[in-house]
Amino acid sequence: MAELTMVEAINLALAEEMRRDERVVILGEDVGVDGGIFRVTKDLIEEFGEERVIDTPLAESGIMGVSVGMAMRGLRPVPEMQFSGFSYLGFHQIESHLSRMRWRTQGGRQVPVVVRMPYGAGVRALEHHSESREVFYTHMPGIKLVVPSGPRAARTLLVAAIRDPDPVVFFEPKALYRAFREEVSDEEDEPITIGKAMIRRDGTDLTLVAYGAMLPRAMEAAKTLADGGIEAEVIDLLTLSPLDHEAIAASVRRTGRCVVVHEAPLSYGPGAEIAARVMEGAFLKLQAPVMRVTGPDVNVPYFAREQLYLPDAERIADACRATMNY
Amino acid sequence: MPREPLQFESRVERLSILDEDGKADEELVPEIPDDLLVRGYRTMVKARRFDQRRLKLQRSGRIGTFAPVNGQEAAQVGTISALDETDWFVPSYRETAAHFWRGTDPKDILLYDAGYNEGGALAEDSRTLPLAVPVGTQMLHAVGIVHAARLLGEEEIAMTYFGDGATSQGDFHEAMNFASVFDCPVVFVCQNNQYAISVPRSRQTRSETLAQKAIAYGVTGIQVDGNDIFACHVAAREAVDRARNESRPTLIECVTYRLEMHTTADDPSRYRDEEEVAKWRQRDPIERFGKWLMARGLVDDKGIERMEEEITDEIQAAWKATEARIETLKDVGPMFDHVFAELTPELARQRARMQDGHSPGGWKDG
What PANTHER family does the record point to (chain A) (predicted)? Predict the structure, then answer.
């Protein structure tokens, strides 16, 4: 067992999978010699060489399009978009080809690409470096989207993503990259099943749904609420697409109340989809409307105000109390 | 000297072998076995007749929009015929003639044109990729394919097709750049057919030629008469050799003309006059190649008549087979196939609901 940060855990998963499967290759901007600007791919070029850890020209569409071609020829590329805010230049290749190639060829070609990209606010970064635009990718048929909430989840979820036969967008909550350490097994851990949520805390009074960088804040809020006698059941989504809505609905059928947390803007965010699913799966058990604790419908402000933008434990707890008092 | 002309290597030539009257510079005509010459001619004629039949099918509502190849047959057959079967063909959406050379079944094209995904089904070992609709995006796939092959210890080459409009796209730049930086054996075939729907070549770039764009990437470029099958073939053969022997990309600009509409949804009379089209009809790639073949005694009127009959029958049989297949494909279910490797529980639920006549969303018993 070793205590690892999320950056180290992702690095470990990449190295393990590259050792296990020669078809796994990494490509992107600064991923080789530099080891990635967050050091996620640190030292991998030394072990696996520049043919498998490829520093590319600065061109996101190129990285994505070449990854599609590599996957069609039998590799398992793990391209890095340096920030999710830069992935839009590669968006066209993801939407028009990566998500559709299996479907277009009626199963004749698979494109098992894992697109890693750091997302989210909280690291005092420049404009375009802090957004949380997961719904761009969850709205694409044919793409799976996963978001780890800590080092252990990052390691096992990435392993599952790389072994998955379908394209996966792997959202990395960069605010958690070095926020805390967790014990990560030296042995190979069981990969997390993509498409399955996990209950991180049992509770009977309400269901609190979160993922990624908001999960620790939801857990903190749950602790505060418990001091006041409210027991929240915290669900960590881990996969946003395909969404494990049955796990959410099952929990809400027990608790009768639901609060969803995400840092993406309110309107048309994941909370809207989750609220609709709760309506379909737990309507008669609901004792309050589904509450959403999210970013407002504005761009992430420059970093002096980013913590004001982000949901925090206090805002989450406040929403939970309002739901209890409805 | 504080200021002097930059010196850099610029290898961009223009090649023309077979003129509008079917007269060739015989010294430059490549060595091609007679049966392949006739096969090339037949493929060009078949592509044109196929378009004519498809246009009737489209106008009568039996198939949807498609992009005619008319006028570009030499640019396609001349280049694709330089490839081996084991090489990769990465097309855009107008390469019907090249598809026929590669053996794509007209039934599959017609099924696709009729709006059925099943028409795009690809065998797992196929090195003929399906058509790519978004302009310019497929060039990067060609680069990725050959680069992956190299990492897997195989030497494979790819030929990818696009038009003059695509050279304005960022993906053209990114693909040329990646291919050159990574020494990728890709042949980039630009069919400069003078128009991107309505916008003329002069509005795409002030660059005097498209071929010269190769210079900036450190790539060899060549411009050929795109209605001259020999010039296209010679340039492609050289590019294929360069790919195989030196693992270097090449940009070929085939100067040609789209004699018909962009797609069947387009009315070209809005943006070009008949005089211009008539001028290009004089340069028809099939006619000039036919004249040369006749002069060489490789085809005659009777043989062409027989060939035309065979082609008509072949296309008719393909359409009959397509119509019969369509009758078996009316279910709502197949749209859910191959979205993922395995149908997710959610998609299974949505499919079942739709098969029962409901909307995909909803609740149990709802």
Answer: PYRUVATE DEHYDROGENASE E1 COMPONENT BETA SUBUNIT, PYRUVATE DEHYDROGENASE E1 COMPONENT SUBUNIT BETA
Contact residues, chain A, for B139 at CB < 8 Å: 65
Residue matched to tokens 């990646």: B178
Nearest to A131 by CA among A86, A176, A79, A194: A86
Cis previous bond, B345, omega within 30: no
Bridge partner residues of B251 (DSSP):
B188, B221
The three-state secondary structure class of B12 is strand
Residues 72-91 of A with CB under 8 A from B: 72-75, 77, 89
In the annotation, is B141 catalytic?
Answer: no
Main-chain phi, psi angles of B295, to 5 degrees: -60, -30
Is the CB of residue B269 less than 8 Å from the CB of residue B210?
no
Rounded to whole angstroms, the Cα distance separating B62 from B64 reads: 7
Per-residue pLDDT of chain B (366 residues; tens, 9 = 90+): 689 988 887 779 999 999 999 999 999 999 999 999 999 999 999 999 999 999 999 999 999 999 999 999 999 999 999 999 999 999 999 999 999 999 999 999 999 999 999 999 999 999 999 999 999 999 999 999 999 999 999 999 999 999 999 999 999 999 999 999 999 999 999 999 999 999 999 999 999 999 999 999 999 999 999 999 999 999 999 999 999 999 999 999 999 999 999 999 999 999 999 999 999 999 999 999 999 999 999 999 999 999 999 999 999 999 999 999 999 999 999 999 999 999 999 999 999 999 999 999 988 777
Q: Give contacts of B120 with chain A, Cβ < 8 Å.
A: 104-106
Q: Which of A23, A108, A141 sits opposite B121 (nearest CB)?
A: A108
Rounded Cα distance between A206 and A221, Å, is 12
> Going by C-beta distance under 8 Å and a sequence separation of 6 or more, which residues neighbour residue B170?
A59, A61, A89, B136
Are A243 and B346 within 8 A, CB to CB? Answer: yes
The token pair at A171 is 């959202």
The answer to whether the CB atoms of A106 and B148 lie below 8 A apart is: no
In DSSP notation, B74-143 reads HHHHHHHTTS-TTSEEE--S--HHHHHHHT--HHHHHHHHTT-GGGG---TT--BPPP--STTTHHHHHH
A280 to B120: CB separation less than 8 angstroms, yes or no: no
B262 assigned to active site:
yes
Backbone φ, ψ for residue B230 (5° rounding): -70, -45
d(CA B72, CA B66): 15
Interface predicted TM-score (ipTM): 0.95
For the four alpha carbons of A249, A252, A256 and A260, in that order, the dihedral sign comes to negative
Q: Which is the catalytic residue, given B258, B283, B288, B351? A: B258
Range list of H helices, chain B: 34-59, 73-80, 96-102, 106-113, 138-151, 170-181, 213-216, 229-246, 274-281, 285-295, 301-326, 345-355
Q: DSSP secondary-structure letter at A191?
A: P
- Residue of chain B whose alpha carbon sits nearest to that of A73: B145
Question: Is the CB of A242 less than 8 angstroms away from the CB of B341?
Answer: no
A90: chain B residues, CB-CB within 8 Å: none
Q: Residues B11, B59, B271, B281: which is the catalytic one?
A: B271
In three-state form (DSSP H/G/I as H, E/B as E, the rest C), the secondary structure along A259-283 is EEEEEEECCCCHHHHHHHHHHHHHH
Take residue B138 and report the two structure tokens written for it.
Answer: 């497929």
